[in-house]
Predict the structure of ChrB N-terminal domain-containing protein.
Amino acid sequence: MAKDSEAERRWLLLIYRVPSQSSKARVAVWRDLKRLGALYLQQAVCVLPDREELRAALDRVRERIAELEGSSHFFVLDDVDEREQRQITDGFRANSAKEYDEIVEECETKFFKEIEFERYRENYTFEEAEEIRQDLEKLRRWLRKVEARDWMGAPGREHAHDRVAECERLLEEFEITVAERVGEAG
């Protein structure tokens, strides 16, 4: 029976320990690993797909752990049971899907409401439009980061793109109104 591409996937496994007296250090390491897209199998044990850029990033995380007087062990897993492969893959998909959902929520509960609120206040200024544009750029950067670590093709990507596109549309309409209002006043 031929193996599928998921079953042939290689994984990078990191097991680490950071001194318990420094919660700040533990959180810093955790944050670095989450930023990379690491999937935690249990506390201080995480896995990532085997990619050159992730190997280099893990080397930097391991250096940080050592600087914090911690320890780490690094393994490349290339013979992983099919059931475990599915669990790891499903875990990565779930993480990315959750992040896409958070982007959608940010659009719907904050960005859309901000435009609505500024229209209600009739706060049609270039400064306000620029501030909202900066929020849109943050959403775009966040979406790019999530996509970059969505190695398993999680659901929700298209919906997140649609919501960010809706943010762009709403902002463009707001900017047109700002230009018209400022032009009328000038």
In short: Residues 93-184 form one domain. The chain has two domains: 1-80, 93-184.
